[in-house]
Protein 1
Amino acid sequence: MKVVALVDCNSFYASCETIFKPYLRNQPVVVLSNNDGCVIARSSLAKKIGIKMGVPFFQIKQIIKKHPVQVFSSNYSLYGNISSRVMGVLKNYCDQLEIYSVDEAFLILNKFSQRSFYTRAQEIQRVTKKWLGVPVSIGIAKNKTLSKVANYLAKKDETGHQVVELLNQKQIEIALKVIDVGDIWGIGQRINIFLQSQGIKSAYDLYKSDPRWIRQHLGVVGERTYRELHGEMCFPIIEKEQAKKQCRVSRSFENYVCDFKNLEKRIISYATRASEKIRSDKLQAKKITVFIRTNKFNKKYNSYSGFKTYDFISPTNDLFEIIKVAVNTLQKIYQPGIKYKKAGILLSDLSEEGIYNKDLFFNKSEENILKKVRVNKVFDRLNRRYGSGTICIAKENYERFYITRRKNLSPAYTSSFNELPSVG
DNA sequence: TCTGGGGTCCTAGGACCC
DNA sequence: TCTGGGGTCCTAGGACCC
């Protein structure tokens, strides 16, 4: 039997914002999504005064008037940097580490240590807090699903240790009785509604269900969750980072956009960003999808969602080819007279770069391909060195449309020399 | 007035082949 | 006029996650 610990950073983005501003520790802090659209992280004080996850920013303006809430635009380079420091610490405390998301990791703990799992978890907590200023909660159990359950309980224990261990049957059953079925990892909104309608309310109800019924109604995915609740390990720990299968860049607009030229600029910008991303991962794409859509929340206007996928003749990560195809595809789905609110591109069927099909229709020599690769390399190097957007495609008009409204952005304390914090 | 972005996996059904 | 059955591959859409 393996022992899995789930380490989850508390209110991660909000915690990152307070690291360099200790005076914020006793104030509610929220972090907003792109475009300062909705709340995507809240400190525990912000939760206490009733700010809910995912609510649009404009809906909490009343609360902000009454309380001294500190509001931040999201600063992903800061969070990414802090995240890798946290993961670096965690590595020292386990046999295997799976970085599950920016603020979460699964650890396989060594069973033959002299010290208890609980003691070691507490040490992890102490160290991440002291070295990095990041508080974490830890759940310990026999597999990922149960460690998620344990972690869920640990998070609730705000005044206590925020470490919960669920290793024996009795502990597990008690825990499942106090958790809603919808709070289990893998049970989303739709399945929750279905289960509720069947009288399955708590995690324990699901645990006690007939496995054949589960298989029939929830498929293999549900079956795996069920088995994990019973202590089996169905989701392995994946240490090595897997190659990405798709890469998406999309944005909502600050205002409505109708005209083609404006959409075109944005699509070129997203295509540029997406191709940069796959080149930096040394990948190439076989397919590209372009999509544009109206505001899904606004019922006053007709809704429209246009998307089209195109297959490259040969997989590519070449900036110019991707942009050309993206613009052509946009022309096919664009309809005039519509108020667009969001657009994006998706590069999919990604594979390792460097394998080309022979092009049947155009005589692309090896020489030509190499020339393109070199041009892309120069493009990437310049933008890395002198900042994104230093060099771009003329039609993009020197604007990077994927950078949106960020009124309350904090400095890049840890990733830019110009913005290092000063002590004075 | 203002409502994020980027991923994964599974499945049903169509296309195609023998 | 009669019009099989079974396998594989691909894709769109649905569900989930953070």
Protein 2
Amino acid sequence: MDCVRRKVSSVADQRLTARAREIVTAARALVEEAGPEALTMRSLADRLGIKAPSLYKHFPDKAAVEVELIAQQLAGAAEACEAAEARAPGSLAALADAYRAHALAHPHLYRLGTERPLPRHALPPGLEERAAAPLLRACGGEVERARAVWAFAHGMVILEIHGRFPEGVGLGEAWKTGVAALEGSAGERP
Amino acid sequence: MDCVRRKVSSVADQRLTARAREIVTAARALVEEAGPEALTMRSLADRLGIKAPSLYKHFPDKAAVEVELIAQQLAGAAEACEAAEARAPGSLAALADAYRAHALAHPHLYRLGTERPLPRHALPPGLEERAAAPLLRACGGEVERARAVWAFAHGMVILEIHGRFPEGVGLGEAWKTGVAALEGSAGERP
DNA sequence: GTCTATACCCGGATAGAC
DNA sequence: GTCTATCCGGGTATAGAC
């Protein structure tokens, strides 16, 4: 159980040298500040005070750096959801709140981790499942409902990030409405 | 400046000259085949058998071309939803099916139209509202519920497009579960 | 309305010296 | 581990001839 609950990000980090970890930290800051498009080998090197070619002594290519960031995003979301679960076991609303808060606290990283196919082969084993587990538990193991809730939450978050809702509208009510509906339907489709 | 923009009329295409319409058609084909990233002024010109600088006689810049595609995506989704509404008035399930089918039939165009802030100022007036109207009607005018349903539908579509669900899983049940839950909650939060 | 030529920027990545 | 020098490709956009 300790093994399951241990921070996967630290597991991922252990695959890296100390210097590589510093590079990833800089890359993350870059993405969080200016978006995934702003992450270039040159800008990353600049932030570290070195030249771009030096980065290739630590990572084979840019994709390898991005994989680390995607893993961090996934692990961060997993942690946030696990914490919410610990605070309010079984509460879909608490889970949704935590997911929303975490995503909106790191919108650019969220985009990086979610708007492209997952590099599953390169991620720490079990990370994807770990991120999904709290929601699945809150849905009493109903996989289909968990997927529906995930889609709702992701849709709300990503539409808000992209400014797709009319300007200035509060979204709290839409979240409540959606969560209540999806929570209330438990077991109605056995 | 030959990039004449004619007066806005009910049909989006009529805002453009004949040649400009051909260019947009080529741009759309490019995007639908290879994704939004593949749309460059060079590749667009190549497909038309002309050189890139010639495009600037018809459009002021690349963003103007993209705006036309985004408008087409929005209009296409609106048409699909209006047709579903005509076939099955008031049915959220029919609307969801139509939305899903249209999006998955043009996944790259859907991404272009949805994964960035809407260029509202440049779109045909009323288009955004028109696209939202069928869903709002199906929700009996409950705006918050309409937003929740939209988020759910968009989440399902975009997660599928990006290959985020486990490989090979059927998503029909998740759609049914979500729609049923959001449909069943009508009026429960007055 | 199309062309050529070009300016100017950006990107990822490699070779080889230190 | 970092550097310099470079390669190679790509992108948006403009000027001016025809």
